[in-house]
Amino acid sequence: MSELSWLPDWLTHWADRYGNLRTGVPFFVLSFYIALECCGQFRLCRALPNLVWLLAAYVLFALVCGLEAIQFFLPQRSSTLADIAWGSAGILLGGIPLLFFRLYQSIRAEINGET
C-alpha cells in the first residue's frame, strides 16, 4: 500500500507491515458502530439490540466473503481465507459494546428489583 500517495505514511507503513490484519479493521469499525447504534436506539427492549446486531453481523460476514470472492477473479489481487478470518474477528470484536450493554442492563435490573 505504500504506493498510495493519498494515504498518510504511518497508515501505509502499518498496512504493509500487517497485511491480513488490515482486513479486520474496517469491519471492526462498522460492527462497533452498529453495536453502539443498537445500544442507543433500543434501550427499552432487551432482545432487539442483539437481534439487530446479529443480522448486521451476518450481512458484514457476507460482505467479507463477497469481497474475497471478487478478489479471486482480479489478477492483481489475492484472495485468502486469512482475510475472511480477520474480517470475521473484526466483526465479532466490534460487538463488544453489546456485551457491556447487556451487563449494564442486568445490573440495573438487579438493583431495581426487576426480573
Concise structural overview:
About 70% of the residues lie in helices and about 0% in strands. With about 120 residues, it is mostly helical.
Description of the molecule:
The protein has one domain (21-112). It has 5 helices and no strands. The protein is an all-alpha fold and 115 residues long. The chain has helices at residues 9-17, 24-41, 48-72, 81-94, 96-112. The chain starts with 8 loop residues before the first helix and ends with a helix. The longest helix has 25 residues, at 48-72. The mean pLDDT is 81. Helix 2 runs antiparallel to helix 3, helix 2 runs parallel beside helix 5 (96-112) and helix 3 runs antiparallel to helix 4 (81-94).
Q: Output the helix-strand order.
A: HHHHH
Largest sheet: none
Output the number of helix runs. 5
- End-to-end CA span: 53 Å
Overall pLDDT metric: 81
Q: Report strand %.
A: under 5%
Number of strands: 0
Break the fold down into its secondary structure elements and pairings:
Elements: H1 9-17, H2 24-41, H3 48-72, H4 81-94, H5 96-112
Helix pairs in contact: 2-3, 2-4, 2-5, 3-4
